[in-house]
Known about the structure:
By secondary structure, this protein is of the alpha/beta class. It contains six helices and four strands; from the N terminus they run H-E-H-H-H-E-H-H-E-E. Strands 1-2-3-4 form a four-stranded mixed beta sheet. Strand 3 (98-100) and strand 4 (103-105) form a beta hairpin. The radius of gyration is 13 Å and the shape is globular. It starts with 19 loop residues before the first helix and ends in a 5-residue tail after the last strand. Pfam families: Peripla_BP_2. It comes from Lautropia dentalis.
Amino acid sequence: xxxxxxxxxxxxxxxKPMSAEAVAALQPDAIIxxxxxxxxxxxxxxxxxxxxxxxxxxxxxxxxxxxxxxxxGFGLRVGEALQQISEGLSDLGPAQGYADAGHVVGRTPR
Length: 110
């Protein structure tokens, strides 16, 4: 729907944790996650986690953070979620900034 390829389609059913090695092996160009997944450390700490830090998504700052219910609550707001994901994926050029709730925000320090 947004023109992206789900690297986990067919191999990872449902919502299950992945090891750092499994994430690193996928080498995703973008990562879509929820605000709750960021934890207390925020986006910079999330992107610095082993397994995520070495991916093109983290290196090029293409981590899209959506409101938890918008991302997980398939309902009347699914169109809004798709729009925000599409906007976050619209430019996968290097170092454009992190997409946070559909808006590009400042880069985090390395």
